[in-house]
């Protein structure tokens, strides 16, 4: 059974349940873990949700809505995801995790969707955890669209929850957009090659009903070592 590292956050239970149900053993990290050692020991990395990435890390001044993550998380998670990618191991990055992945690869972020995106849909950290809020349109032929094919409406869209106020702006190196909201907000990115997927919503909240089970199963499959 593959071991998957999870970066530390305040709401771990749904991530843990999703990883276990997909057939992997979760390892909850702390900020005292060493990124290089973790990358060598585990079979994959799940970057979890949380507060905003420090905009200084992508060369921007902070927006008035900036709400920092726990002290030390930015540096730890950026070093961690770089080490895991360098080790050629799979990464699944969720919400803040997708933003960390993008910044770690040299990209930047929309700091506040309501004030920066005209006609923005409901992307709001106060949105309900378990309610679907808006649809996303997927890129045909992407890993994301292929994994989700049984769940997509007309083979191209699905509904997602939306507890975020930031989003990917300019893409980090090697990333491609694989899902967008109707207002143009980037909702999922991936990197060709070894499994590396970021989603802006919280698929882990749906382990009871399984809307996004194919994403966790595809991730865990990619984490299995050849036997
Ligand atoms: Mn959204």
Explain what you see.
It is a single chain. This protein is an alpha/beta fold and about 230 residues long. It has a single domain, classed as Rossmann fold. Helix content is about 25%, strand content about 20%. The strands form two sheets. It has a nine-stranded mixed beta sheet, with helices on both faces. A two-stranded antiparallel ribbon has the order 5-8. Strand 10 and strand 11 form a beta hairpin. Helix 2 packs across helix 3 and helix 3 packs across helix 4. The termini are close together. The mean pLDDT is about 95. The site of manganese (II) ion has 9 residues, from loops.
Full CATH superfamily name: Class I glutamine amidotransferase (GATase) domain
Q: What would the average pLDDT be, to the nearest integer?
A: 96
Could you say which structural class the secondary elements and strand pairing correspond to?
Answer: alpha/beta
Total helices: the number is 7
The CATH class is identified as: Alpha Beta
Helix percentage range: 25-40%
| Radius of gyration using CA atoms only | 16 Å
Please indicate the count of domains: 1
Q: List the strand order in the largest sheet.
A: 2-1-3-4-11-10-9-6-7
Per the CATH scheme, the topology name is Rossmann fold
Q: Tell me the β content.
A: 15-25%
Ligand catalogue: manganese (II) ion
Order of helices and strands: EHEHEHEHEHEHEEEEEH
CATH architecture: 3-Layer(aba) Sandwich
**How would you sum up the global shape?**
globular
Q: Give the strand tally.
A: 11
Separation of the first and last Cα atoms: 11 Å
Instruction: Report the major sheet.
Output: 9 strands, mixed
């Amino acid at each position: 059974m593959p071991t998957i590292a999870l970066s530390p956050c305040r709401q771990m239970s749904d991530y843990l349940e999703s990883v276990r149900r997909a057939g992997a053993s979760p390892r909850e990290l702390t900020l005292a873990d060493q990124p290089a050692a973790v990358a060598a020991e585990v079979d994959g990395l799940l970057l979890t949700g949380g507060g905003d990435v420090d905009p200084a890390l992508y060369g921007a001044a902070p927006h008035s809505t900036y709400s920092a993550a726990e002290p030390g998380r930015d540096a730890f998670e950026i070093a961690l995801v770089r080490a895991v990618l360098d080790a050629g191991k799979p990464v699944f990055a969720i919400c803040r995790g997708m933003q960390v992945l993008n910044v770690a690869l040299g990209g930047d972020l929309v700091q506040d969707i309501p004030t920066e995106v005209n006609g923005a849909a409901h992307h709001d950290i106060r949105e309900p955890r378990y309610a679907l809020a808006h649809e996303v349109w997927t890129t045909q032929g992407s890993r994301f669209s292929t994994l989700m094919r049984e769940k997509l409406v007309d083979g191209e869209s699905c509904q997602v929850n939306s507890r975020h106020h930031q989003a990917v702006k300019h893409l980090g190196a090697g990333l491609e957009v694989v899902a967008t909201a109707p207002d143009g907000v980037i909702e999922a990115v991936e990197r060709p090659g070894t499994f590396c997927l970021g989603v802006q919503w919280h698929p882990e909240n749906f382990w009871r009903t399984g809307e996004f089970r194919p994403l966790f199963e595809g991730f865990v499959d990619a984490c299995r070592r050849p036997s």
